[in-house]
Amino acid sequence: MEKSDFATNGHYAVTLRNREGKLRPANLYVHRLEDAYMIARHTSGSDVGLLVKLGYDDVVRIVRTHPVLDKKRFMIPDAMLKPQIWATRDSMRTYSSAPGLGK
Known about the structure:
It contains one helix and six strands; from the N terminus they run βββββαβ. The protein is mainly β and 103 residues long. It has a single domain, classed as SH3 type barrels (Roll), CATH 2.30.30. Strands 5-1-2-3-4-6 form a six-stranded antiparallel sheet, with no helix packed on it.
């Protein structure tokens, strides 16, 4: 996949290739797009809420996209999404809010 296949504040059902090379389904909310990777949040499964740094080639297929209403957008400070923070990490556990959900 390529950067142009994704949009910030987009919610995607995708097929990911994990480190062992196995294909796994995932639901992702994309927070930030960089040239070589994206910062996305898992929105289901055992990693729900985990922010991850994903290369575009880790996404094998986009199964479907979900529209995200303004009130359902996840809010994270921009400072937590800067490339300098992600230079040395692959994931980050955070607790963000979605005002429309009372969180």
